[in-house]
């Protein structure tokens, strides 16, 4: 059940849908997570907007896991001296020598997806 890469519009829609579900509070569990059935609701909304995309629950769950992974990588970087965030351009800011030192000592093998 392979799927092509997500378009920016699809990702924006997915993020908006999840945000609206957080606001509703109906889809949240006592421990702060989402009820499993929320994936079906999001899938249906995505299928209405993107008829040709063939987006299923597994694709949505995979994209969310990717976002979480990316967030944790960025969070780890931003906690280190020399790393910053450009709010105007929404991107990581770091001098080359700080980056090179980070890459040399990093135990985050998956961080190299950002290079």
Question: How would you characterize this protein structure?
Answer:
- This protein has a two-stranded antiparallel sheet.
- The model has no long low-confidence stretch (mean pLDDT 84).
- It is built from four helices and two strands.
- By secondary structure, the chain is mostly helical.
Please describe the topology of this protein.
Blueprint: H1 8-24, H2 38-49, H3 57-78, E1 83-86, E2 91-94, H4 96-105
Antiparallel strand pairs: 1-2
Helix pairs in contact: 1-2
Shape: elongated
Give the class from helix and strand content and strand pairing: mainly alpha
Order of helices and strands: HHHEEH
> Within the largest sheet, what's the order of strands?
1-2
Beta fraction of the residues? 5-15%
Described by strand count, sense and barrel closure, the largest sheet is: 2 strands, antiparallel
Distance between the termini: 28 Å
Number of helices: 4
Task: Provide a brief overview of the structure.
By secondary structure, this protein is mainly alpha-helical. The protein has helices spanning 8-24, 38-49, 57-78, 96-105; strands at residues 83-86, 91-94. The chain is elongated, with a radius of gyration of 17 Å.
Descriptive labels:
115 residues, mainly alpha, two-stranded antiparallel sheet, 4 helices, 2 strands, 53% helix
